[in-house]
Amino acid sequence: MVSINWLIAFIVLVGIEIATMALTTVWFAGGAFAAFLLSLAGVSLEIQLGVFVIVSFMLLFLTRPIAKKYINQNIITTNVDSLIGRHARVTSDISNEDGTGTAVVNGQEWTARALNEKDRYPAGMMVEIKRIDGVKLIVAEKKEEL
Prior knowledge:
The protein is of the alpha+beta class. It is built from three helices and six strands, in the order αααββββββ. The chain has two domains: 2-70, no CATH class; 79-141, CATH 2.40.50.140. A hairpin with a 2-residue loop joins β5 (126-133) and β6 (136-141).
């Protein structure tokens, strides 16, 4: 009966992985399969559980970084995520203390704030977008490229 339970666990975990393709259950499916093979050999339940845990975590820690490298490697950032690291032109002075500032990137004007609270950027200056908070660009002085 234990063998059937391990087999069911294996099938369910593989099914979840196929449905989600999120690399979440495949590691545990490998552990369940190893435990299933041990149960067929008549090994005690305690050892089966131990092997399930050990094999699952070994698969997780040893193969996940490799799998993540090759799966979803063609992800292209879209929308606001693609703006991070780009340059914008300040259209009105940026001052966090005064709560002012706008910048234009890709032809769109955004509210902008300085990454460092005390920094000020005059209109016309080029800045680098460091992150986006809501609808505000968080910018810093553009570093000169070599």
